[in-house]
Protein backbone atom coordinates (compact mmCIF):
# COMPACT_ATOMS: atom_id res chain seq x y z
CA UNK A 1 0.00 0.00 0.00
CA UNK A 2 2.89 2.35 0.76
CA UNK A 3 4.26 1.91 -2.75
CA UNK A 4 0.85 2.67 -4.24
CA UNK A 5 0.51 5.85 -2.16
CA UNK A 6 4.02 6.99 -3.14
CA UNK A 7 3.22 6.27 -6.80
CA UNK A 8 0.03 8.35 -6.55
CA UNK A 9 1.96 11.23 -4.96
CA UNK A 10 4.53 11.06 -7.77
CA UNK A 11 1.70 11.02 -10.34
CA UNK A 12 0.07 14.13 -8.91
CA UNK A 13 3.42 15.92 -8.71
CA UNK A 14 4.09 15.12 -12.38
CA UNK A 15 0.63 16.35 -13.37
CA UNK A 16 1.11 19.56 -11.37
CA UNK A 17 4.41 20.22 -13.11
CA UNK A 18 3.08 19.36 -16.55
CA UNK A 19 -0.02 21.52 -16.39
CA UNK A 20 1.70 24.38 -14.62
CA UNK A 21 -0.37 23.40 -11.61
CA UNK A 22 -1.83 25.53 -8.90
CA UNK A 23 1.46 25.68 -6.98
CA UNK A 24 3.03 28.41 -9.10
CA UNK A 25 -0.26 30.31 -9.23
CA UNK A 26 -0.58 30.11 -5.44
CA UNK A 27 2.94 31.44 -5.02
CA UNK A 28 2.23 34.37 -7.35
CA UNK A 29 -1.05 35.09 -5.53
CA UNK A 30 0.83 34.95 -2.21
CA UNK A 31 3.36 37.48 -3.51
CA UNK A 32 0.61 39.76 -4.82
CA UNK A 33 -1.16 39.93 -1.44
CA UNK A 34 2.06 40.51 0.52
CA UNK A 35 3.20 43.17 -1.98
CA UNK A 36 -0.10 45.06 -2.10
CA UNK A 37 -0.85 45.26 1.64
CA UNK A 38 2.08 47.65 2.41
CA UNK A 39 0.74 50.05 -0.22
CA UNK A 40 -2.65 50.04 1.54
CA UNK A 41 -1.18 50.52 5.03
CA UNK A 42 1.34 53.20 4.14
CA UNK A 43 5.06 53.60 4.90
CA UNK A 44 4.84 52.86 8.65
CA UNK A 45 7.53 50.17 9.03
CA UNK A 46 6.75 49.61 12.72
CA UNK A 47 3.13 48.80 11.88
CA UNK A 48 4.17 46.52 9.02
CA UNK A 49 6.64 44.58 11.15
CA UNK A 50 4.05 44.20 13.91
CA UNK A 51 1.35 42.77 11.68
CA UNK A 52 3.73 41.14 9.17
CA UNK A 53 3.18 37.56 10.41
CA UNK A 54 -0.59 38.07 10.19
CA UNK A 55 -0.25 39.32 6.60
CA UNK A 56 1.87 36.31 5.60
CA UNK A 57 -0.49 33.86 7.28
CA UNK A 58 -3.60 35.42 5.75
CA UNK A 59 -1.95 35.35 2.34
CA UNK A 60 -1.05 31.68 2.86
CA UNK A 61 -4.63 30.77 3.80
CA UNK A 62 -6.07 32.49 0.73
CA UNK A 63 -3.35 31.10 -1.56
CA UNK A 64 -4.08 27.55 -0.40
CA UNK A 65 -7.57 27.87 -1.87
CA UNK A 66 -6.15 28.38 -5.37
CA UNK A 67 -6.84 25.23 -7.36
CA UNK A 68 -8.12 23.35 -4.32
CA UNK A 69 -11.47 22.72 -6.00
CA UNK A 70 -9.62 20.62 -8.62
CA UNK A 71 -8.05 18.33 -6.03
CA UNK A 72 -10.58 15.56 -6.72
CA UNK A 73 -12.71 17.13 -9.44
CA UNK A 74 -10.30 16.44 -12.31
CA UNK A 75 -10.10 12.76 -11.37
CA UNK A 76 -13.89 12.68 -10.93
CA UNK A 77 -14.43 14.06 -14.42
CA UNK A 78 -12.09 11.70 -16.31
CA UNK A 79 -13.03 8.60 -14.33
CA UNK A 80 -9.67 8.21 -12.62
CA UNK A 81 -11.30 8.48 -9.19
CA UNK A 82 -13.53 5.48 -9.92
CA UNK A 83 -10.48 3.42 -10.88
CA UNK A 84 -8.66 4.52 -7.73
CA UNK A 85 -11.69 3.61 -5.61
CA UNK A 86 -11.72 0.12 -7.15
CA UNK A 87 -8.02 -0.38 -6.35
CA UNK A 88 -6.98 -2.42 -3.29
CA UNK A 89 -5.68 0.77 -1.66
CA UNK A 90 -8.18 2.22 0.87
CA UNK A 91 -9.81 5.46 -0.19
CA UNK A 92 -8.26 7.10 2.90
CA UNK A 93 -4.84 6.26 1.50
CA UNK A 94 -5.74 7.87 -1.82
CA UNK A 95 -6.92 11.02 -0.03
CA UNK A 96 -3.71 11.11 2.02
CA UNK A 97 -1.58 10.82 -1.12
CA UNK A 98 -3.42 13.56 -2.99
CA UNK A 99 -3.39 15.95 -0.03
CA UNK A 100 0.33 15.32 0.47
CA UNK A 101 0.99 16.13 -3.19
CA UNK A 102 -1.13 19.28 -2.87
CA UNK A 103 0.86 20.43 0.16
CA UNK A 104 4.19 19.69 -1.55
CA UNK A 105 3.20 21.89 -4.50
CA UNK A 106 1.39 24.62 -2.55
CA UNK A 107 1.97 24.81 1.21
CA UNK A 108 5.66 23.88 1.24
CA UNK A 109 6.70 26.48 -1.40
CA UNK A 110 4.74 29.14 0.48
CA UNK A 111 6.50 28.30 3.74
CA UNK A 112 9.94 28.25 2.09
CA UNK A 113 9.30 31.55 0.30
CA UNK A 114 7.91 33.34 3.36
CA UNK A 115 11.32 34.58 4.66
CA UNK A 116 11.97 36.27 1.31
CA UNK A 117 8.49 37.80 1.19
CA UNK A 118 8.88 38.83 4.82
CA UNK A 119 11.25 41.54 3.61
CA UNK A 120 8.26 43.25 2.01
CA UNK A 121 6.59 43.64 5.41
CA UNK A 122 9.75 44.71 7.29
CA UNK A 123 10.19 41.51 9.34
CA UNK A 124 13.51 40.94 11.07
CA UNK A 125 15.41 37.66 10.95
CA UNK A 126 13.80 36.19 14.05
CA UNK A 127 10.29 36.96 12.85
CA UNK A 128 11.03 35.57 9.39
CA UNK A 129 12.32 32.29 10.80
CA UNK A 130 9.44 31.96 13.25
CA UNK A 131 6.83 32.67 10.59
CA UNK A 132 8.39 30.17 8.20
CA UNK A 133 8.40 27.53 10.95
CA UNK A 134 4.76 28.15 11.81
CA UNK A 135 3.81 27.91 8.14
CA UNK A 136 5.66 24.62 7.85
CA UNK A 137 3.75 23.32 10.86
CA UNK A 138 0.37 24.82 9.97
CA UNK A 139 -0.07 24.70 6.19
CA UNK A 140 -0.63 20.91 6.14
CA UNK A 141 -3.73 21.52 8.28
CA UNK A 142 -5.00 23.94 5.63
CA UNK A 143 -4.57 21.30 2.92
CA UNK A 144 -6.33 18.58 4.91
CA UNK A 145 -9.21 20.90 5.84
CA UNK A 146 -9.47 22.01 2.24
CA UNK A 147 -9.57 18.36 1.11
CA UNK A 148 -12.87 17.90 2.93
CA UNK A 149 -14.44 20.77 1.04
CA UNK A 150 -12.85 19.57 -2.22
CA UNK A 151 -14.35 16.12 -1.72
CA UNK A 152 -17.80 17.56 -0.97
CA UNK A 153 -17.73 19.71 -4.12
CA UNK A 154 -15.96 17.21 -6.40
CA UNK A 155 -19.10 16.63 -8.48
CA UNK A 156 -20.05 20.33 -8.64
CA UNK A 157 -18.77 22.35 -11.58
CA UNK A 158 -17.19 25.66 -10.57
CA UNK A 159 -17.60 24.87 -6.91
CA UNK A 160 -14.69 27.07 -5.85
CA UNK A 161 -16.87 29.65 -4.11
CA UNK A 162 -18.83 26.97 -2.24
CA UNK A 163 -15.55 25.35 -1.26
CA UNK A 164 -14.20 28.62 0.16
CA UNK A 165 -17.37 29.19 2.19
CA UNK A 166 -17.15 25.68 3.60
CA UNK A 167 -13.50 25.56 4.60
CA UNK A 168 -12.46 29.12 5.48
CA UNK A 169 -14.21 29.09 8.91
CA UNK A 170 -12.46 25.80 9.72
CA UNK A 171 -9.06 27.30 8.89
CA UNK A 172 -9.42 30.12 11.43
CA UNK A 173 -7.93 28.16 14.42
CA UNK A 174 -4.76 27.41 12.44
CA UNK A 175 -4.58 31.07 11.41
CA UNK A 176 -4.97 32.26 15.00
CA UNK A 177 -2.34 29.99 16.52
CA UNK A 178 0.03 30.42 13.57
CA UNK A 179 0.03 34.18 13.98
CA UNK A 180 0.22 33.89 17.79
CA UNK A 181 3.29 31.65 17.58
CA UNK A 182 5.06 33.95 15.11
CA UNK A 183 4.37 37.00 17.26
CA UNK A 184 5.41 35.17 20.44
CA UNK A 185 8.86 34.62 18.94
CA UNK A 186 9.40 38.37 18.73
CA UNK A 187 8.75 39.19 22.37
CA UNK A 188 5.20 38.17 23.18
CA UNK A 189 3.99 37.32 26.67
CA UNK A 190 3.43 33.65 25.72
CA UNK A 191 6.40 31.31 25.10
CA UNK A 192 6.89 30.53 21.42
CA UNK A 193 6.60 26.76 21.88
CA UNK A 194 3.12 26.91 23.43
CA UNK A 195 1.14 28.17 20.41
CA UNK A 196 3.48 26.24 18.11
CA UNK A 197 2.61 23.00 19.93
CA UNK A 198 -1.10 23.82 19.66
CA UNK A 199 -0.63 24.52 15.94
CA UNK A 200 1.13 21.18 15.45
CA UNK A 201 -1.68 19.45 17.35
CA UNK A 202 -4.26 21.10 15.09
CA UNK A 203 -2.35 19.82 12.08
CA UNK A 204 -2.34 16.25 13.43
CA UNK A 205 -6.06 16.44 14.19
CA UNK A 206 -6.78 17.86 10.75
CA UNK A 207 -4.71 15.09 9.14
CA UNK A 208 -6.75 12.36 10.82
CA UNK A 209 -10.20 13.94 10.71
CA UNK A 210 -9.69 15.52 7.29
CA UNK A 211 -8.56 12.25 5.70
CA UNK A 212 -11.48 10.28 7.12
CA UNK A 213 -14.04 13.00 6.33
CA UNK A 214 -12.80 13.51 2.76
CA UNK A 215 -12.90 9.76 2.10
CA UNK A 216 -16.42 9.56 3.52
CA UNK A 217 -17.51 12.49 1.33
CA UNK A 218 -16.10 10.76 -1.77
CA UNK A 219 -17.97 7.56 -0.88
CA UNK A 220 -21.23 9.39 -0.21
CA UNK A 221 -22.49 9.65 -3.84
CA UNK A 222 -22.10 5.87 -4.11
Short account of what is shown:
Its main location: membrane. The protein has 222 residues and is mainly α.
Structure description:
The chain is mainly α and 222 residues long. The protein has one domain. Helices cover 82% and strands 0% of the residues. The protein has 10 helices and no strands. α8 packs parallel to α10. The relative contact order is 0.15. The model has no long low-confidence stretch (mean pLDDT 87). InterPro entries: Cyt_c_biogenesis_CcmB (IPR003544), Cyt_c_CcmB_bac (IPR026031). It is a multi-pass membrane protein. It is found in: Cell inner membrane. Keywords: Cell inner membrane, Cell membrane, Cytochrome c-type biogenesis, Membrane, Transmembrane, Transmembrane helix, Transport. Its main location: membrane.
**Mean of pLDDT:** 87
- List low-confidence stretches: none
Helix content: over 70%
What is Rg? 18 Å
Give the H and E element order.
HHHHHHHHHH
Range of strand content = under 5%
Sketch the major β-sheet.
Answer: none
Number of domain modules: 1
Number of helices: 10
What oligomeric state do these chains adopt?
single chain
Count of DSSP strands: 0
The dominant shape is elongated
Class computed from helices, strands and strand pairing: mainly alpha
* Termini gap: 23 Å
Function: Required for the export of heme to the periplasm for the biogenesis of c-type cytochromes.
GO biological process, one term: cytochrome complex assembly
GO molecular function: heme transmembrane transporter activity
Family: Belongs to the CcmB/CycW/HelB family.
Amino acid sequence: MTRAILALIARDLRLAGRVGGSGALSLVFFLMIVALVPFALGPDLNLLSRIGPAILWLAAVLSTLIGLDRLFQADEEDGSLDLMSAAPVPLEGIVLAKVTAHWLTTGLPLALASPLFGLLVALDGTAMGATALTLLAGTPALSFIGAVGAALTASIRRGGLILAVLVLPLMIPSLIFGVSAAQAATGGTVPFLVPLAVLAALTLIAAVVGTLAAAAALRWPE
